[in-house]
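User: Hey, quick favor. My workstation is busy. Could you predict this chain's structure for me?
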Amino acid sequence: MRFMAQLRRTAAVCTMALFSAAAVQASAPQLKTQAPGYYRMMLGDFEITALLDGTFPMKAGELLVGITPTQIDADLARSFLKDPVESSVNGFLINTGTKLILIDTGAGAFFGPTVGKLVANLKASGYKPERVDEIYVTHMHLDHIGGLIADGKIVFPNATVRASQQDADYWLSQSKMDAAPKEAKEGFEHAMQALNPYVSAGKFKPFNGAVELVPGIRAVPTPGHTPGHTVYQVSSKGETLMLWGDLMHLGAIQFLDPSVTLRFDSDSVAAAAQRKKIFAEAAEHGYWVGGAHLPFPGIGHLRAAGTGYTYVHANYTSLAPGG
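Assistant: No problem, here it is.
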């Protein structure tokens, strides 16, 4: 009898301990943080590292042109999304084996507290800003160039910054800023703040047209979103990755209908034409694609689907790239 009573007391104590442990675990605060924002893959002999600058809410109903609000809601619902859509800001680091090249730098301090993390994620990925040899800018909107500076100082001290001459002639022009409407002047100011320190240091080198910048990386002019918007074609060992910049913004809608444009396009007709052309080439040739505003890591493929396209994101792997 004594043994049975002891057993019951022991069972009661264990039960109370279990309930107590469960209560403690349930009361633990939620962390609400994410892991370091980088993703790595190999493209032939080149190492590609996607870097997340952060995310921000994109208001599709206010930004998109050539589509009705009803159709926006329907397209987003197909992808289990609703307006506003959380949009990524991505940059891409390319290690060719001889050069370390960064495509776009994120927003820096220009775009609010939810972005501006690209440099931190660059460091988390194992690289330091001073190791970057060259920076290729797709265009001079603030969420692509803001990370060039911090507190007015150069972030990448050993890098040469390159962008199309057409974008430089537009965004770095005092006369064009003076002639712009009041609501548009801020864009010029941000571009000058981000680029002028590199210009003054002799570290800005614009280019003209389609040109190979280093072996395996070629600038492809795609004017429309801005006067000198550029896509970068990265090729190694028969594989190709097209880094799009702002060729497109919202995949859930623009993959279905590439004719949908953005209110901030400098030439919406040209932007739509470039998007249709580059989308078709990517689908036909099976290129990898990387988008600045596709959900991180923003890398995948396109497959033709009727009059539009289906985006197939990269299959995630935890294996060492090339291992």
